[in-house]
Sequence to fold (293 residues):
Amino acid sequence: MRLGSLEGGGTKMVLAIGDENGHIEEQVSIPTVTPEETIPKMVDYFRDKGIEALGIVTFGPIDVKKDSPTWGYVLDTPKLAWAHCNFAGPFRKALGVPVGFDTDVNGSCLGEVTYGAAKGLDSVLYFTIGTGVGGGIFVNGKLLHGMLHPEAGHILLVKNPKDLGGSVCPFHDNCFEGLCSGPSIEKRWGAKAKDLAGRDEVWELEADYIAQALVDEAMTLSPQRIILGGGVMHQTQLFPLIRAKFAAYMNGYIKTPELADLDHYIVPASLHDDQGIMGGLRLAQLAYEENVS
Ligand code: ADP
Ligand code: ZN
Fold:
C-alpha cells in the first residue's frame, strides 16, 4: 500500500512516501516558513505520487477531534504564523485521500509501537526531550485524545531548591519542558548541552527531573514501556541515572514484571529519528482503514 507521511516541525517539514510496513521509499525536507507558502509546496509534493492515504504528525497544539469543525487546524501556538491555520484540510481537499492528523509525539509513539521498541504492546508512553519536551501516549491500543491531546511536556515537577536556573517555559515556573529541555539545560549551565557531557551534576539534576515525570506518568497511565527520544537523550549516560532515580521515587510501591526489569522498561527510541515519519505511515493506514469500514 502506497502511503504518504508528513512530520511538521518548527524549522523543517519532513515529507515521505512509504508503505504499511514502515518502509520509506523516498523522503525530503523543506523549511517551515508560513502556511501560505509551505502548505501548497507540500501538497504539490504529494500530488501525483499515487498515495492511498496520508498521515500528518505535527507540532501543536492542534485540533485532533474528528467531529470538530476545526479538525486539522493548528490552535494557539507560539509559532505565530501557524496559529489557527487549517493544516490538514488542504491536503484532504487537493489529494482526495483519507488524512490522519495527530501530534508529532503521538506520531512517534505510534511509530515505536508499530515498528520499534514497543512493538506489540498496547499501552506505551513516549517522551521527546529536545528543543521542547512532549509526550505521546498510546493506551489500550489507541493514541490518547480527550479534550485536546496530551500536553505531557507541561506536567509540573517539584523543583530542586538548589536549581537556580529558572524555567524556560513562559507559562510555568516548574514544568517538565521548562526545567528539562535542551534550552533550559543551556540557560542553567551556560553552555551547549552537548558540551556538558562530562559534567556529572548536569545529568544528575536532569535525570532527577525526568524520573519525577516518568513516575507520575507511570502511576497515572500504567504504560508497559517508556521510550525516550530527542536530542538531549543522546546523552546516553542519562538512562542508568533515570532508572535508578525512578526506582528510588517508586520506592517499591507497585511491583510488576515490567518494573522488575527497568533496563527494558525505560528505553531509548529505536527508529533512528524516523519514529515520527514512520508513525505517520501507520496513521495514514489507520485513516484509510477507518474510511473503508
Ligand atoms: P527538536 O526538538 O528541535 O526536534 P532535537 O530533538 O534534536 O530537535 O533537540 C534539540 C535540542 O537537543 C537542543 O536544545 C540541543 O541542545 C539538544 N541536543 C542536541 N544534541 C544533543 C546532544 N548530543 N547532547 C545533549 N543535548 C543535545
Ligand atoms: Zn510549561
Observations:
- Strands lie at 3-8, 12-18, 24-31, 53-58, 99-103, 124-129, 133-139, 142-143, 225-229, 266-268.
